[in-house]
TrEMBL record:
Keywords: Membrane, Transmembrane, Transmembrane helix. It comes from Dietzia aurantiaca. Pfam families: SBF_like. The chain crosses the membrane at residues 12-29, 35-52, 72-92, 98-123, 130-154, 166-184, 205-225, 231-253, 274-300. This is Bile acid:sodium symporter family protein.
C-alpha cells in the first residue's frame, strides 16, 4: 500500500491539477498567451530532442531477441487500444459530445509510459530488462505512429481537422528534434548526465502545456461545456477501458504461454498511456482545436492507471514473495 499512497500524492500530478485550477481563475490571455505559446513550442521541441538523446539504440537491438513479447505489447498499444478507442468514441459521442469523445480516442493512440511501466514490472517481480525494451520501443515508434493514427482515425468524421501545415509542424517540432537527439546522442548525454534534476524540465514543460491548453479552454468556455455528469461518465469510461486492456493483456499472454515474469511486462507495458508524450503531441497535433477537451480524457486515464496498476503490481509482488504451501503428505 506504500507505493499506492505515494502515487496518490505524486507532486507531478498535483502540479498538473494546480495548472488546471490556476488556468480556471487566471488564464493566460493576449500577450501572455502568445508568449506562453512560444515557450511551450520551444519546450516541446527540446523535450523530444532529449527523448531522442536518452533512447539507447542497443535497447532496440536487444528487443529483437524477444520479439514475441514486444510484438504483443506493441499490438496492445497501437492496435487493440485504438480499436477500443473507436468503439468508445462511437458510444460516448452522444453523451460527452464530439470533442471529449475524440479526446477519449486520442488517449488510446499515444504510446506507453516508460518510467511507471518499468517501475510496476519491478514491483510485480517481472522481467525488468524486457520492460525497459518494450517501453522504450513503444515510445520510439509512438513518435511516428501516433501522428499517423491521428491522421487515419481522428480526421475522418470532421471532429478534428489537421492541415498540411500541421504536418510540417509535427515534422519540425516532434520528429526532427527526436532524430537529431539520436544523431547527437553521444555528445549530448555527457552534458545532460551532469545536470541534476533534469526530469524537472520534462515535467515543467508538460505542466505548461496543461496550463496553456486550459487557459485556451477557459477562453472558449470549457467549463460550461463539461458538467459533473459528463466528468463522471468519462471517469467510468476510462476505468472500463483500463479494465478491458488489463484483462486482454493477461489473457493473451497466458494463451501464448509466457512465463509469469513476461506476463507482467505484457500487462503493465501494454496497458499504459503516456501523459509525458501525449500532452506535448496533442499541443502540436491539435493547433486551433479545443485542446482542453481533447487532453482531459488522457489526464484522467493517466491518474486512474497509476492508482490501479500500483495496487495490482503490489498484489503480484506480494504473491511472489509468499512461499508456496507444502504439499499434503
Amino acid at each position: 500500500m506504500e507505493i499506492l499512497r505515494r502515487l496518490r500524492i505524486e507532486p507531478f500530478i498535483v502540479a498538473i491539477l494546480a495548472a488546471v485550477v490556476v488556468a480556471a481563475f487566471l488564464p493566460a490571455t493576449d500577450g501572455a498567451a502568445t508568449a506562453l505559446g512560444w515557450v511551450t513550442t520551444i519546450g516541446i521541441a527540446v523535450l523530444f530532442f532529449l527523448y531522442g538523446a536518452r533512447l539507447e539504440p542497443r535497447e532496440l537491438r536487444a528487443g529483437l531477441r524477444h520479439w514475441r513479447l514486444h510484438s504483443v505489447v506493441l499490438v496492445a498499444t497501437f492496435v487493440a487500444f485504438p480499436l477500443l478507442g473507436l468503439l468508445g468514441q462511437w458510444v460516448l459521442t452522444p453523451v460527452l459530445g464530439a470533442s471529449l469523445a475524440a479526446g477519449f480516442l486520442f488517449t488510446t493512440l499515444v504510446p506507453s509510459t516508460v518510467q511507471s511501466s518499468i517501475t510496476f514490472v519491478a514491483i510485480a517481480r517481472g522481467h525488468v530488462s524486457a520492460a525497459v525494451v518494450s517501453a522504450s520501443v513503444s515510445n520510439l515508434l509512438g513518435v511516428f505512429l501516433t501522428p499517423l493514427l491521428v491522421f487515419a482515425l481522428m480526421t475522418t468524421d470532421g471532429s478534428v481537422k489537421i492541415t498540411w501545415d500541421s504536418v510540417g509542424t509535427i515534422a519540425l517540432q516532434l520528429l526532427l528534434p527526436f532524430v537529431l537527439g539520436q544523431i547527437f546522442r553521444d555528445r549530448i548525454l555527457p552534458i545532460t548526465n551532469k545536470i541534476k534534476r533534469l526530469a524537472l524540465f520534462d515535467k515543467t514543460v508538460i505542466v505548461l502545456v496543461v496550463y496553456a491548453a486550459f487557459s485556451e479552454g477557459v477562453a472558449e468556455g470549457i467549463w460550461t461545456m463539461v458538467g459533473v455528469p459528463q466528468l463522471a461518465v468519462l471517469v467510468v469510461a476510462c476505468c472500463v477501458l483500463l479494465a478491458v486492456v488489463l484483462g486482454l493483456t493477461e489473457l493473451v499472454s497466458r494463451v501464448l504461454g509466457f512465463e509469469e515474469r513476461d506476463k507482467r511486462v505484457v500487462q503493465f507495458c501494454g496497458s499504459k498511456k503516456s501523459l509525458a508524450t501525449g500532452l506535448p503531441m496533442a499541443a502540436v497535433l491539435f493547433v486551433g482545436q479545443p485542446l482542453g477537451l481533447l487532453v482531459l480524457p488522457l489526464m484522467i486515464f493517466h491518474q486512474i492507471q497509476l492508482i490501479v496498476c500500483a495496487w495490482l503490481a503490489g498484489r503480484y509482488g506480494r504473491a511472489e514473495e509468499t512461499p508456496a504451501a507444502p504439499a499434503a503428505s
